[in-house]
Amino acid sequence: MIVIDALDECSSLRHNLSRKDNHKGLLHMLKHWIYVDHLKKFKLILTSWHDEFIQKMFPESMSIHINIPFGSNVNPGDSTSHDIHIFPKSQLDSIGEEGTWIKRALNHLVPCATGIFIWVMTVADSLEVDP
Fold it and tell me: pTM of the predicted model, to two decimals?
């Protein structure tokens, strides 16, 4: 499995005339990944904010698009919130705090994370140091 995170951040290349070809070349190379026999055994995972240029290069007919909600699009019962709930709960359970306190903390922290795992991870780490 090969993961290229934040592919959209390469878009600054396409706005720089001297590097525009680098951006196009990267996207074309990634697009043709599925046509190269010895690369078919690998999974290529690209992450990106919504970018129409990238989306046109990788249409749903040749790739699987997964929308991970964040911000105001995160609902309390969705899988993102559930996943974000699991990590801080294990962190808080490990510091031996009272169960009621942990439940109240999670009820507050998980919605504040708005789908951003690193945010809740940072908060849980700091709570581990000083509950």
Answer: 0.55
- How far does Cα 124 stand from its chain's mean position? 19
CA distances from 16 to 21, 23, 28, 35 (A): 9, 9, 18, 29
Closest among 87, 92, 85 to 130, alpha carbons compared: 92
Cβ density class 44-68: b for 16+ within 10 Å, e for less: eebebeeeeebeebbeeeebeeeee
**Residue spans per domain, the chain:** 2-57, 71-129
**pLDDT digit string, tens, across residues 71-102:** 777 776 777 778 888 877 777 777 766 667 77
